[in-house]
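Page 42, continued from yesterday. The earlier attempt failed because a stray header line got pasted into the input along with the sequence. Redoing it now with the clean sequence only.
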Amino acid sequence: MKNISINIEKKEFFNYENKIKTHIAIKDFNLKIAKGEFCSIIGPSGCGKTTLLNLIAGLDKAYTGSISFGKNKAGRNLNKAFMFQTPRLLPWLNVQQNVEVVLNKNQNKNEISKKFLSIMGLEKFLDYYPNKLSGGMQRRVALARSFATQPQLLILDEPFTSLDEPVANLLRKMLLELWTKQPTTIIFVTHDINEAIYLSDKIVFLSKPPSKVLKEISINTKRPRKMDNNTIQKIKNKILKANNSILKGEL
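This time it went through. Structure tokens are written below.
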């Protein structure tokens, strides 16, 4: 997979019972994401961020336009992983089994699952079931599961929302460490501009629905970055000051 090219002419929803259009979620949307790039997407509530991720992931194909993945234009057999707002662990499987469930029979499931769970600091919890884990630990399992498949594209939909800030910061750091060890293209939806600045190579700001790209901003500050230093705030202030007329009312 090389660059991702997203060109959505229109994504609309229908009431199939009455056969009427109910909502145009995305229109005239154009975005390119480079291979290996960490791209964060920010936009107002209800602007279609999750809808966009579903289209990119191929979970929803009812739209006009095109989404291509380099030479693999249709994204067939492209190895993608999707981490949702909730961990979505299977309650009848233990921690290790929840990672192994996404691996195929030709892989060494035991070795791979233990490797990524160890990176997440969960080597002592392999036999635990999800209901015995804290919210942060469940997200770590979900993160380990996402990287265990060695995805060419990793899609994350506000994966650290609702967590206490220290726990969220730990998971952000773990995400970057995993990404550094196993580079992949990441599309990360967030409502938190500080989080986006800390994590991203590029931040994409979306409009109110029907959603389109308002602005793309590169973050060139070297990693590792710190969530608690003045650099994040300085970058944030610079972004908002320079783009206030475009972004006003959109965040």
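Notes: The mean pLDDT is 90.
Reminder to self: strip header lines before submitting.
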